[in-house]
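Re: the request from the purification team.
They wanted to know what the chain is likely to look like in 3D before they choose a buffer screen. I agreed to run a prediction and write the result into the notebook, where they can find it.
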Amino acid sequence: MATSRLLGARRRGPLDVRFWRSVDRSTDGCWNWTASVNTYGYGQIRDEQGSYATAHRISWRLHNGDIPAGMCVLHKCDNPRCVRPEHLFLGTQADNIADKVRKGRQARGERHGMARANVVARQRGAA
């Protein structure tokens, strides 16, 4: 099966060609991914091995080279569909967490999945 995925990816063309085919650069702001997205809203594309990769990581690779081991590609704009290189930066997982807390995206209180009301509701089968 892995071989057929790889052949399928090659049949559709080189990664950079397939990448740019799915990018909307019509604005001065974010360059949005227009193809498939994952459950978290991040663009996804099959890489050279036929596995799914997030589009913003592929954008980083195309513009800046390989991503060092253990590093994340973060968004300055907080738009998971954005692949504009100027909106991306490298950081550790700790940097990623600190960034979301600083920008107010960390779930707190009842929004947090482990809040007491949510846990009790799950235990009762209500959620």
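For the purification team: The first helix runs from residue 2 to 11.
Please add any questions underneath this entry.
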